[in-house]
């Protein structure tokens, strides 16, 4: 964020989403494109004007003033149309012609963004499109960035966003918080989208490290937005934030050079972000109120344990139980694999090997890596066979190299 | 894949007097075993953690007795539902159940859908 270009981009990302939320709230969600147009024009004017006159002292205030003027212009033009043109056509409808005032107070921005978040995460839109819309409208990402994040192209993303906005219109989705008794259910979907957004960044296949980091930080920001609001500041919201903080704390340690992933065991702990770890602990503590244990709780607790590198019996037993519980809430092959690894650490190689053999995840190269590790020193020939299968199934060169290394070390 | 109910019976399910540490070890055994089935993606329902000690039995003629357990050797302690291709596979899944270590049994019953 140090370079002026970065700060301008940052300003854009921050303010674009706030302004679109506030203006959409005023116009109604069916005119979201109008709001986007007004804000885009504002930024266009900003770049042109700032290039000549320099960046104003308070760029944010500058943007708000211009956006207000442009909104006013829109209403005036609309008024002329309604008062002068429509009567000529004999189509004039009775309408409230009061020109409303745009309110860019911190409170209204926050409220509008939360309402926008709930509106976008409506079940009528497919989740992939929800993430796209969230990236565009709430995080201020450009179409190209979204395309890169999804490993797609601009046309596809444009079409997808267009259809999603159509859906908002036709389904008459309102920018408002759901009723009190519905908020908990709807919040589940909102949290899920934030979780997916974070995963998109954290497990992203894009080579663009800045983009991946931005995705994660935006997901974290949306989570914090929910935590700042009493009705959505529930234990599971806090658990999700804790989970994101713990994972994000290892960001700098996971990457070396351009695109080499550093495995957990080999990470330099000094690169872990202690502030984020502490922030995570704070939210984890907040998350333990109430009776519900969500998958975010369990995942956050597991991620918490991974903030300590030392292997203790207590640590791995606890992790194993957390994975046991997580499997009961939602099974996935990767949870099954991680659970078996924890079983190995807690209960030993033999027991884990027997369990691993039952999993039969035959298309998953991580499965064969795990089997290879578990056969090591028990049956090195079988260990080798499993590593070789993993090698064949692995998709990236980095992974293949890592597996070859394991084969070589077997001798 | 069909659903099968695994019913756990043991001579005693009264853990009230068990020292906390032993209770933890026992709980871990059960959780690891159920976790192993869940890891294979074959757990349908975890059922209740444990059925409580008290209960009533109603018989014809309005006869109500306390506890169904007095005349039988093994008490029904809990159950889970798993999915498997056939009864044999479901029976294989039941192996390693901690109820067996406690002198109990697992009854495997296909669920009629």
UniProtKB/TrEMBL annotation, chain B:
<comment type="similarity">
    <text>Belongs to the YciI family.</text>
</comment>
<dbReference type="Pfam" id="PF03795">
    <property type="entry name" value="YCII"/>
</dbReference>
<dbReference type="InterPro" id="IPR011008">
    <property type="entry name" value="Dimeric_a/b-barrel"/>
</dbReference>
<dbReference type="InterPro" id="IPR005545">
    <property type="entry name" value="YCII"/>
</dbReference>
<protein>
    <submittedName>
        <fullName>Transcription initiation protein</fullName>
    </submittedName>
</protein>
<feature type="domain" description="YCII-related">
    <location>
        <begin position="49"/>
        <end position="112"/>
    </location>
</feature>
